[in-house]
Write a structure and sequence with these properties.
mainly alpha; about 350 residues
């Protein structure tokens, strides 16, 4: 991690940067994470890598730099190789818990869905048809596993093989719900859309502050990051049903109230720390705000709030800290959405043209 910070420091200055510098900051982070992702011996959970991979795929879209796509392809290939040896069939290895070749041990839908989103992002950019098909088959195989076993009639989704709790859970519901929306947008299979909408309906009823089994008070930034990815990925579909959209906006606005009070870049009194396991997910919250700014009537002010917090994050990443990879990976998502709106959820399937904003 020290190497990452050494690479970042010359570009990210001690004074808070302004929005026009976001592009330079983003590509500096991208260059720094490529060798980190290539280190197959790292003992970091793969879900952390997955957010950097998704952002790196957008960096490839923006720049055409082959090194970015190649890093995504190498990482995704490792995920598929591990998956081929996993029980149950279709599961991803998380770099902890149940290992390839084992038939016992914990295995989680939440973390594995993060991996699936990164493999899917890589697949959609692969120029080789066979490689693309292999990666897409990997993701759809994983989705079948979850849909056949862990999606409940309520719309909520359990976290797989987790003996401490086997009910519908906020994290697995939010992240797999987002994967379902992206798979629907790519394949047109209505089964995915049904799961995505059901996940949001369950989350609307649940209300994010009621999160348990990693409680909201303990892990609020993580709860918001993961729960609301289902909303961000499904935004165009949520708007098509006025009742569902109204219920979803209630949750979105309550989330924005929390962010205004707790994002360090907007409230210096916030007690959340970037180095913390839960606080590191603050890096991804501007990503959500940027997405929502394209769909909600307040548009520009929402994006301006995100700019302010992302600017503060850039300053934090310039410091000589030892535990900032998670912040870096999640912040890369925010930079990617700021610089290339909508690219994190891009698909190859043609869509009817429509304006994002209401």
């Amino acid at each position: 991690m020290h190497a990452l910070l050494v690479l970042i420091a010359p570009v990210l200055l001690s004074a808070e940067p302004q929005a026009p510098e976001f592009r330079e900051q983003f590509f500096t982070l991208c260059d720094a994470v490529v060798p980190i992702l290539d280190d197959a011996g790292r003992r970091v959970p793969f879900y952390q890598d997955s957010y950097a991979v998704r952002a790196l795929a957008v960096a490839y879209d923006m720049s055409g730099k082959q090194q970015y796509l190649d890093a995504c392809r190498r990482w995704s290939a490792r995920m598929v190789e591990h998956q081929a040896q996993m029980t149950p069939q279709g599961a991803y290895y998380m770099n902890y818990g149940r290992k390839p070749g084992e038939a016992t041990g914990d295995w989680y839908v939440g973390d594995s869905s993060s991996i699936a989103l990164a493999v899917l992002a890589t697949a959609l950019r692969c120029p080789d048809a066979r490689e693309k098909a292999r990666l897409l088959d990997s993701v759809t195989g994983y989705a079948r596993l979850v849909m056949d076993n862990y999606v409940k009639p309520s719309g909520g989704i359990t976290d797989g093989l987790w003996p401490q709790f086997d009910g519908e859970w906020w994290c697995s519901t939010g992240i797999f719900g987002s994967l379902a929306f992206v798979l629907y947008d790519e394949t047109g299979d209505p089964a995915y859309l049904k799961v995505g909408l059901g996940a949001v309906d369950w989350l609307n009823r649940q209300r994010f502050e009621n999160a348990r089994h990693i409680d909201y008070k303990e892990a609020a930034p993580s709860v918001l990051m993961y729960v609301f990815e289902a909303y961000s990925a499904g935004m165009p579909h949520l708007r098509r049903d006025p009742t569902r959209w109204a219920a979803s906006q209630v949750e979105l606005r309550r989330a924005m109230e929390w962010m205004a009070a707790n994002q360090p870049g907007r409230n210096a009194a916030s007690h959340w720390k970037y180095e913390h396991q839960w606080g590191s997910k603050l890096g991804g919250l501007p990503f959500h705000l940027y997405v929502w700014s394209r769909f909600m009537p307040e548009g520009a002010p929402i994006a301006a709030d995100a700019d302010k917090d992302l600017t503060h994050m850039g300053t934090a990443l310039a410091g000589d800290r030892s535990n900032l990879f998670q912040l870096c990976a999640f912040a890369m998502m925010s930079y990617a959405e700021r610089l290339s709106p909508g690219s994190l959820y891009r698909t190859d399937r043609p869509k009817a043209k429509s304006a994002d904003r209401r």
